[in-house]
Amino acid sequence: LLILGIFGVVIVAAKDPGCEVPILVSTGGPVPHNPHTLAIRWTGYSNFELTYKGYVILLDAYFDRGSTYTPLGFKAADIKKADVILIGHAHFDHMGNLNAFPNATFYIQERELSKWVWTMTLDRRFRWLMGGVDPADVLRLVDLATKGRLVAVDGNRENVVPGIDLHAAYD
Prior knowledge:
Elements: E1 2-6, E2 9-13, H1 17-20, E3 39-44, E4 47-52, E5 55-59, E6 84-86, E7 105-109, H2 110-120, H3 135-146, E8 150-153, E9 157-161, E10 164-166
Parallel strand pairs: 5-6, 6-7, 7-8
Antiparallel strand pairs: 1-2, 3-4, 4-5, 9-10
Helix pairs in contact: 2-3
């Protein structure tokens, strides 16, 4: 049992496996005892897992990296629960495993998606602009939209899950 006094407020926290065990909630690890606890785990590279109020939120979706990158210790197929996936931007190393999450809702900034679709329509001499983006991933996002599983956000969005808001950070 840990007791902390901060600015006259006493916080009592028992050891919680949902906050201390390195196994991801999305792969079957323990959920924090208190649903109001925000558990954040770095899963490697640009990926994070957030667990809050029973929801599992993944920041980016690039887990099966091949031999180019250091293995993460799990594969996309190991992820059993992902309610929401927030795509930071459309490069392949942020959204390479979109098909691995059949029950998740995906969020991306509308202008990120629309600019890449537009870029795909340019003359062949401009195809080099697609160097960091896999056109198949962009088409997968469009397919998710047709299935009602993609939210194209214009700026900020409140309550992606209850208590978690998105705030745009444009380049």
